[in-house]
Design goal:
Chain lengths: 121, 142
């Protein structure tokens, strides 16, 4: 997948070796389809991309992360952002095992009426 | 509450960001565009510049506004103040051609018949002139 190239680029840029798994920066990302396009938005960073094709939108997102972090580094704000993201990830429980990279999650609402369960998909 | 426009050109969104004091970081790779503000939070925001004429749809725009902490009312104010004349005057007057304006103010004119790029220029009179000489619509001479 092309996004892997971007991941390697980000790692190189951040000075992270591939074996230093503990150095990764976890980002929770929301993906949804609306008005004929896939939107990809970082939950805790102002990064949003879109495309009609989901795979392409994900690739754009990898580029956007690289661009965003490059600018943060230039401004001397990278470390503070990284710490913030790791703290949020730990608080929200997706830093370690609960959410693996590139897994998609969706919220489905259940309602209970007259002893019957209804799921809204 | 006002409805968001069904389609918004990228150039118009960039103008809104500029009115909010965001400046484009010229070194953004690919189609990612990162903007920096010295006065506003968030100080760094990144969006995707769509290719060609692909517009920003309402669902995406809603997320954009949320990310830059901009209310709809304020967005419409900024949209009307400076950008409407810039884009809408350039576009749509002549249905033989389509015009787009990029971040740097360069107008690209495309022929609706042969789909060729007629001209790229920052000067509207040059675009007018090139369009008037474009072979697809020149009057036939016997």
């Amino acid at each position: 997948m092309k996004a892997a190239g971007a991941v390697r680029r980000v790692s190189r840029f951040l000075g992270i070796q591939r074996q230093e798994v503990s150095s990764y920066i976890p980002l929770l990302v929301r993906l949804w389809q609306e008005d004929g396009v896939w939107n990809v938005s970082a939950s805790d960073l102002p990064i949003v991309v879109f495309d009609e094709d989901l795979a392409q939108a994900r690739k754009y997102f990898a580029d956007a992360i690289y661009s965003h972090f490059t600018t943060l580094k230039k401004l001397g704000k990278l470390e503070e952002t990284q710490d913030h993201l790791i703290r949020l990830a730990r608080e929200n429980g997706f830093y370690e095992e609960r959410i693996q990279p590139c897994q998609l999650f969706e919220r489905i609402n259940y309602s209970v009426e007259d002893d019957s369960l209804c799921a809204t998909v | 509450m006002d409805k968001l426009p069904p389609q918004l050109k990228w150039a118009r969104w960039v103008k809104v960001l500029e009115k909010l004091d965001y400046i484009s970081d010229k070194n953004s790779p690919g189609s990612a565009r990162t903007f920096v503000s010295k006065t506003r939070e968030p100080a760094v925001v990144t969006f995707h510049e769509p290719h060609g004429s692909s517009p920003i749809r309402p669902g995406t725009l809603r997320e954009y506004l949320r990310k830059v902490a901009l209310t709809r009312d304020r967005f419409f104010e900024l949209l009307e103040k400076d950008t409407e004349s810039l884009i809408d005057e350039v576009e749509g007057e002549e249905e033989h051609f389509r015009r787009y304006v990029d971040n740097a103010g360069i107008i690209t004119s495309l022929c609706n018949k042969c789909f060729a790029t007629v001209i790229q220029s920052a000067h509207e009179h040059e675009v007018d002139s090139a369009e008037s000489l474009h072979p697809c619509y020149l009057p036939e001479t016997s």
